UniProtKB/TrEMBL annotation:
Keyword vocabulary terms for this entry: Oxidoreductase
The species this protein was found in: Roseobacter litoralis (strain ATCC 49566 / DSM 6996 / JCM 21268 / NBRC 15278 / OCh 149)
Pfam families documented for this protein: DAO (PF01266)
Name the UniProt record assigns to this protein: FAD dependent oxidoreductase
GO molecular-function terms, A-Z: oxidoreductase activity
Ranges for domain FAD dependent oxidoreductase: 9-366
Length: 397
């Protein structure tokens, strides 16, 4: 398929959850009537982070901006059909509120949880700080011999169907006039402070008013086409689905063990995930699994924390990628100060799916009106990266 036009007001590089969220939100911006082109190299999305996500949302961040972003995400999920125009082909979304449960095994970690709970409570989140006896009373299956405290929230925190959200963003963006193209951006022509055009693998060259970098783990390569650098790389993350010979008698919260391994209820099964002990950057097309990790790392940690899971059977597993921001593991957003029409939406480091409604809206506002109107996303601006100044967020998984 060839592009319909030779020039577009907005060219979005990457058609995953962020490219599609921004495209759809742009069609909702009053007064914006520009041409939108979304370019996606793999329309099957087989190895996209959007497809390989664990699809959860949490209020439990330490930074107020991240908390506000997730609060809008929960509002968006609860009112999904209304936001999407009450169309007959938009299903309702639900949020399964088993919550996240962060465990602390040191006094310093317990203090951090207590401080974060206070910030969350001030902003209306339902997070509860729990001591060991309170954890045992609510969830008697945990081994808590080495645990001092936990934070848990069952209000607007848990699993939602991110795949359906993504599908609707994409379908409704196209229905509202955004164009999707199966191709790959291989070069950009920059003249001074602007990107004038993008060149596609198919050979076409398209003029552009503005370029949005929504290319996930390929973000750094996309930025280099405009002569820019950002600290984003691909990091492997493992997901395991397992069955238990002795299932728990209640939902398992998304439990973040002090080891960094996390596990939760997943329908009739359970899901676990995390990174390898050695966590180097990998090629964006490298999804090779280290099959020894399940036996040597994940299973022993899970069985230690929940002795009832001593007898479990692995049902499925896959490797996905974080688009990992090596500076501070938080989003890099907005225009580059040296190239005014190149906009970053990158580096989510595992937060991406849950933040897509709010950040997609914010970037669309900036494109349409030159400013963030709903939530101030300026703290995520690329300027902090250029200064080497970290966005402070303690609750990174």
């Amino acid at each position: 398929m060839n592009p319909k036009h030779a020039s577009y007001d907005v060219v979005i590089v990457g058609g995953g959850i962020y490219g599609s969220s921004i495209a759809w939100w742009l069609t909702q911006m009053a007064g914006f009537d520009g041409r939108i082109l979304v370019i996606e190299k793999d329309p099957t999305y087989a190895q996209a982070a959007t497809s390989l996500t664990n699809s959860c949302i949490r209020q439990q961040f330490s930074n107020p901006t991240n908390i506000a972003i997730s609060q809008f995400g929960a509002e968006f999920i609860h009112n999904f059909q209304k936001f999407m125009g009450a169309s007959d082909d938009v299903p309702a979304l639900s949020l399964q509120n088993f919550g996240y449960l962060y465990l602390a095994d040191t006094a310093a970690q317990a203090d951090t949880l207590r401080e974060s709970q206070q910030v969350q409570a001030q902003l209306g989140a339902g997070t509860r700080h729990m001591l060991r006896d309170e954890i045992a009373d609510a969830y008697p299956f945990y081994n808590l011999d080495d645990i001092l405290a936990a934070n848990h929230n069952r209000m607007n925190e848990g699993y939602f169907d991110g795949g359906t959200m993504f599908d609707c963003f994409r379908r409704m963006a196209r229905k509202n006039g955004a164009e999707y193209l199966s191709d790959e951006v291989v070069a950009m022509t920059r003249v001074g402070t602007r990107v004038e055009s993008v060149t596609l693998k198919s050979g076409a060259t398209l003029s552009c008013g503005l370029v949005v970098n929504a290319s996930g783990t390929r973000a750094a390569a996309t930025a280099r086409m405009a002569g820019l650098d950002i600290p984003v790389e691909a990091r492997r993350r493992y997901t395991y689905i397992f069955d238990a010979a002795e299932p728990l008698d209640r939902d398992l919260p998304l439990t973040i063990d002090p080891s960094g391994v996390h596990f939760r209820t997943d329908g009739r099964y359970y899901m676990a995930g995390g990174g390898p002990d050695q966590d180097p950057a990998v090629d964006v097309d490298d999804f090779e699994a280290d099959h020894s990790l399940w036996e040597e790392k994940f299973w022993p940690i899970i069985a230690h924390r929940i002795p009832q899971f001593e007898r479990i059977k692995l049902v499925n597993m896959w490797v996905g990628h974080y688009d990992y921001n090596t500076l501070d593991q938080n989003a890099i957003l907005g225009p580059h100060p040296e190239v005014s029409n190149f906009v970053f939406v990158n580096g989510f480091s595992g937060h991406g799916l849950q933040q897509a409604p709010a950040i997609g809206r914010g970037i669309a506002e900036w494109i349409a009106y030159g400013a963030y109107r709903s939530l101030d996303l300026a703290p995520f601006g690329v300027e902090r990266v250029l200064r080497g100044e970290k966005f402070l967020e303690k609750a990174v998984i």
